[in-house]
Each structure stands twice: as structure tokens, then as C-alpha cells.
Amino acid sequence: MLRIGLLGCGRIGQVHARSIALNRQAELVAVADAIDDAALSLANEYGAQVRDADAICAAEDIDAILIGTPTDTHVDFILAAAKSGKAILCEKPFDLDTDRIKDCLAQLAPETVLMFGFQRRFDPHFGALKAQINQGAIGNVEMINLISRDPGAPPLSYIARSGGIFADMMIHDFDMARFLLNEEPVSVQAMGAALVDPAIGLAGDFDSATVQLQTASGKMCQISCSRRATYGYDQRVEVHGSKGGLQAKNQHENAVRLANADGYHDAPLMNFFLERYLPAYRAELDHFIDAVRNGAAPSPSGHDALRAQMLAEAAMRSAKTGETVLLKG
Ligand SMILES: NC(=O)c1ccc[n+]([C@@H]2O[C@H](COP(=O)([O-])OP(=O)(O)OC[C@H]3O[C@@H](n4cnc5c(N)ncnc54)[C@H](O)[C@@H]3O)[C@@H](O)[C@H]2O)c1
Hints:
This protein is of the alpha/beta class. It has 13 helices and 15 strands.
């Protein structure tokens, strides 16, 4: 049984607590949150103890830590948990500063199990698409389109601490781009605007952004992100290859389609990430437990999270300066 401590009992912490409860090889021993009631409520729901976050990181009766606290706390908790030999599953993004990420990685013992919460890799639809690429179904991957639109913008207080649209939101697409291209993007061109809410622009961020990535061999990926889609959580992938194409379509609340005199009508899209990626979060945790117990390589790794953040930083620079930003492969 893998004994787990959970830091952060907010939106994503609650998802992880549920995944732990559903995995027979894991047990949620303790939870921590800066807000006592949040910790108590989750602890009561899953029969766990409430402890201080630092105590969980150092505890001898805990094998692994899940970090679901705000981004600016991740590095300190990773280092504290690694110090006492814990395996770590940390939420994205690693940190908003790539130098701090590199410094953190350099401090970790080579045997540290460190995985990051880019759950889209574990989505069954995107996973099936990736498997077809690997099987050669479309020949060589040449161009990818990723569309990623949230149903609505988060509160301004969240935006202010989020690191901006590229590090907070599009970081998932940067990870998907690397996952599907199977090569490092080395060129980043970005544009951004506040088309949804001028207050987001006044806060120094964008709510709408597009990015073009290119690898050293010329493969391209185009990403389109918006903080608002009136029709729900829009998550699509299209891959064009030398022998064909692959598409992963949106997921609807059900597969029923009504036809009448006004046309064809599908059920609404799944509302947001908590619903759309529920199976992915569960499979992500299963992989983490497999990595800890059976020595599978933890993936996405610390290096993956670093590369995603490098792309996010490059995109913000490009969007602000209008220049193409080049990265080393
Ligand atoms: N993978 C995903 O799809 C996904 C989705 C949402 C959020 N996230 C990431 O998860 C992290 C948390 O986001 P969220 O939306 O759950 O935020 P949230 O605000 O809903 O939850 C964070 C919780 O952490 C607690 N907290 C803050 N500082 C703490 C500390 N020092 N010690 C203990 N608890 C502390 C807060 O009280 C809060 O309950 C962020 O890094 C975010 O980027 C990932």
C-alpha cells in the first residue's frame, strides 16, 4: 500500500483525493491546507488526518506526496519532500522561473521519483491518437493544431497569481505539443490580446493567445487558447502527417444527437477540466503509483515540466516583443 500525503485541498487537491480513494494500492494518510476548514472537510470525506504541510513532507509513515498547492509553493515543497526520500507528484506548472526549476532539479538525488500533473497525456482519446502516431498510421508527423478554450475566465485574483495565460493555461498545450511532435520545439512565435475582459489586459495578462512552434527538423505546431468559449470546454487535437491525419474531437456530456427542422443538435460539451479529464487524472495517479512501486519511469518528468515552462516563458516574451524566440533543442 502506498501511503500518500496531499498538500492543498482546493480544486485539484479534491480531484487527487478522489483518485487515491479509487486506487486499491494507495491510501490517503494525511492532508494539509492553509485553510483549516478545507483540510478538515477533505480529511473527513476520505478518512485521512489533518497535518501541517511541513510535517507531511517529513513524516515517516508517508511514502509519497501529492502537491496541489499554488504554483509559487511547489519548489519548496518538492525540496522538503525529496529531502526525506518521498516520491512526488506535483501539479503543473513546476515554477514560473526556469532558473529556479533548474536549480531545484540540480538539488534532487538522481533516484528521486518526481512526476508532474500534465494529465492530458493520460486522456484516453489523446492517448489513442498518440498510439496511432507511434504505430505509423499517418507516417511522419508534419503539422499539429491544438485548440484549447476554457468555458470562462477565472477570477482576477487567480489571474494575478497564475503566471499568465502561457504558464498557467497554455502550458498543458506546450506539453501536448512536445508529447505529440516527439521533438523539441526550438522556435516560438506568439500573439496575445485581452479580447474577453479588458481587466485581464490591465492586470498584464492576455485572455486570448496563439502560438506557432517549430522543431529543428521543421515540424510545426499551432496552438489557439482562449479563456472563454460560450459553448463549453473546447479541447481538440488535429495531427497532419505524410500518410494521413488524426483528429481527437471534443467530448460531449452524452453521445445523443437530435435532428429536427432546425438542424443537428449535440449534447453540451463537458463543462470544464474537472469533468473532461476525470479519467485522465485517475490514470495519471495510477502511473505515478506504478512508477513508485514498480520502477516505471515517472512521466511527465521534471525535465518535461522544465521544457514546458521554457516554452511558456518564450511565448510570453514573443507576445510582448513581437519577436520570434529561439531555444536550444
Ligand atoms: N492539472 C490540472 O489540470 C490543474 C487544474 C487546476 C489547477 N492546477 C494546478 O494546481 C495548483 C493548485 O490550483 P487549484 O486550482 O487547485 O487552486 P485552489 O486555490 O483551488 O487550491 C489550492 C489550495 O492550496 C491551499 N494552500 C495555499 N498555500 C498553501 C500552503 N502553503 N500550504 C498548504 N496549503 C496551501 C489553499 O488554501 C487552497 O485550498 C496550481 O499550481 C495549478 O496550476 C492544475
